[in-house]
Design brief:
Helix content is 28%, strand content 28%. The protein has 355 residues and is of the alpha/beta class. The strands form five sheets. Strands 3, 7, 8, 11, 12, 19 and 20 form a seven-stranded mixed beta sheet that branches. The chain has a six-stranded parallel beta sheet with strand order 15-14-13-16-17-18, with helices on both faces. A three-stranded antiparallel beta sheet has the order 2-1-6, with no helix packed on it. The longest helix has 14 residues. The protein binds zinc ion (ZN) (2 copies). One zinc ion binds next to helix 2.
Length: 355
């Protein structure tokens, strides 16, 4: 077994190089990585070398969405054995602070998150990882879909925090990857009506394929007017802002129904001016979310039970050797690709299903 990593060597540059084969320390497993999804944050780091205060100042391995097979276990690991199909959750919380003990481990101040400087990511052939943040993947769920559980977890957490349920009407502002995962999550949680708004037609086509009943082409139609027209003037019970854009945030405030909820999913990196009184008189709840917590098992169960079908996202695959190209291509085709995935080892599905 030889380890290799796709390492970012500069802005927009990445190369494959040999690296040491990891040896599991007590409590760790070593995973042979089969698939790695490219996240918006990975692309941002690749292009700009930083996100807010997180700066890449050395050759750096990106990637935090992956799935693979256990090849070695460290001392004390009893719940995994070589051959197990697994998905690691990319954040390792301290486990002992107040946030961790209270179950809100995504808010742990000492979280070590893959591909968030200073912690390298998983775009490598072999990865040592704490077993306590690794989950079994049932045979019925392809490893390819396993690598999409992380962004799906964001959508599920957003939907859960917003109170998604049967009878609700949701508007998703932004039809990018996270918007689409939020759509799948809302649908699985029973949301009755799903409306998606985006500037690009191709993204709206994706949204319809994934289950949106109505779409709004924001480059041609006023989003707020369209939402109000579709809801008889009432607005939407749930508004998910997934674009991380001040304009869509303002729209979110204006198309939320009385007693509704605005879920802030997209990163708002710049200061924004908000008129709060219209929200106050309608008691609109504003719910920011940060990553997710306690949701990988729910996502895995939903995939295994067929409640969520990730094949609808039609991911684009790229070989590991072309990791740099995968990033460049995904950045250039961001309007149409829901998910790009780097394939290190192809999973033979017929073999897995018949096992
Ligand atoms: Zn991600
Ligand atoms: Zn903690």
């Amino acid at each position: 077994m030889k380890n290799q990593e796709a390492i970012m060597t500069g802005l927009g540059r990445m190369k494959i190089q040999d690296c040491p084969m990891p040896v599991p320390t007590p409590g760790e497993v070593v995973i042979e990585i089969h698939y790695v999804g490219i996240c918006g944050s990975d692309m941002h780091f690749f292009q700009y070398g930083r996100i807010g205060s997180k700066v890449i100042d050395r050759p750096f391995v990106l990637g935090h969405e992956c799935a693979g097979i256990v090849v070695a276990v460290g001392e004390g690991v009893t719940e995994f054995a070589p051959g197990d199909r697994v998905v690691p959750e990319p954040g390792v919380p301290c486990g002992s602070c107040e946030m961790c003990k209270g179950g809100h481990y995504n808010l742990c101040p000492d979280m070590r998150f893959m591909a968030s400087p200073p912690n390298d990511g998983c775009l490598r052939r072999y990865l040592a990882y704490p077993a306590r943040m690794v989950f079994h993947l049932p045979d019925s769920v392809p490893l390819l879909h396993g690598a999409m559980i992380e962004p799906l977890a964001v959508g599920l957490h957003a939907a859960r925090m917003g109170g998604a349920q049967l009878g609700k009407c949701a508007v998703i502002l932004g039809g990018g990857p996270i918007g689409m995962m939020t759509l799948l999550a809302c649908r699985a949680m029973g949301v009755s009506r799903l409306i998606v708004a985006d500037l690009f037609e191709k993204r709206l086509q994706n949204a319809v394929r994934l289950g949106a009943q109505e779409t709004i082409l924001a480059s041609e139609t006023d989003t707020v007017e369209a939402v109000l027209a579709l809801t008889g003037g009432a607005g939407a019970d749930l508004v998910f802002e997934t674009a991380g854009n001040p304009v869509t945030l303002q729209q979110a405030c204006r198309c939320a129904a009385r007693g509704g909820c605005i879920v802030l999913v997209g990163n708002q990196t710049a200061p924004v001016e908000l008129e709060l009184m219209p929200l106050m008189v309608r008691e609109v709840r504003v719910q920011p979310i940060y990553r997710y917590r306690n949701i990988f098992p729910i996502a895995i169960e939903a995939l295994a039970a067929g409640r969520i079908d990730l094949s609808l996202t039609e991911p684009s695959l790229f070989p590991f050797e072309q990791a740099e190209h995968a990033f460049q291509y995904t950045i250039a085709h961001g309007q149409s690709i829901i998910k790009s995935i780097v394939e290190l080892i192809h999973e033979d599905r017929t073999e897995v299903v018949s096992k």
